[in-house]
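Late entry, written up from scratch paper. The run itself happened at the end of the previous shift, but nothing got recorded in the book at the time, so transcribing now.
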Amino acid sequence: MEAATKKALLKPPRENGEILFVPEAETFSAALRGARRAVTCHQLVFFHPGIAIRFHLINSLGPATGCLLFMDTDRTLLQARIPCREGESKVCGLLSTERALYRNVSLRIDRLERFFKVVGEEFVRRTGSGLPDAVQAYERYVQICMGLDRDMPLRERLAESFVRFSGFEVPYHFLSDLFAGDAFRDFFLRIFDDERRFREVYNRTLHRYKERFRFRFRNFPFPELKSGELPFWVEQKGVRCQFRVDRFNARDIQRSTILPKASPLTLFLRMHYCDHFVHGVGGANYEWVNDRIAEEFFGVELRPWSVLSATFHLGGIPERDYPFFFMAPREVERRLRKTGLVA
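Output as recorded:
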């Protein structure tokens, strides 16, 4: 990517390369090969190939090192944006609810069939017959997705169809399962038990970040924590609400579903689950904060993280804004090899 593109993408000014450091492909690949477990994560949505390329990179490491994580704890928003040649687009919606995806355990097969039918028809109508490879890739994805067990829960259906469509061999897990485990519970309780000091470290680090990189936006990359707040959600009647310390005691917490917001989410993963995390472009805006929280609050030093996106490598082709199932996996892999990250 060109320097101007990188600056617009990651936003912080280039100060000693501390945030905006783009290594050579060989340096990046060597760091990944040296990891015991390298992972990437994204919501289970119909994302575009610029995001899918991160999953292809992790898959290239093999089952012994690579692992995929699917974020099923966000609100459920499943839709496919179908662009047309005149620069306009149409959004085809499947499901939109404030309930987390892992709470939506089923979806009528006939509704899924109707969604795919509309998406396919809109794609052909808006792009014409000039993209036969994209239509073929889409039809293969639908065949895989609809060919799975009819009783398979929605999140498993989305994950499994994506993995099979892409030909991945590395394992995958859901974040909701990790957050139900003892490691996350201990991580959260350590913060909860020393919540005032954590909030102080968190806010102080945010202030340093904004001063150092001259950000004028009050809530970028996150708003500061107010008295009694922690950067977590608590589920109430299936909907996520801001966690407040004054509304819970240790016994309440044991009975509640606690979910992390963006910063503690990757902080937990980097501390307890992996030693190399591959972000999309958004993560570059807050891992600087996480590194210092880890050092000042937890007393640990985390290994470096990476950012990888093919968003701009794919910018010159029509498929850039299409969902991943309109681009054959071999094309995504070809563009990944073109970067020199994998052989």
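The radius of gyration is 21 Å.
(Scratch paper discarded after transcription.)
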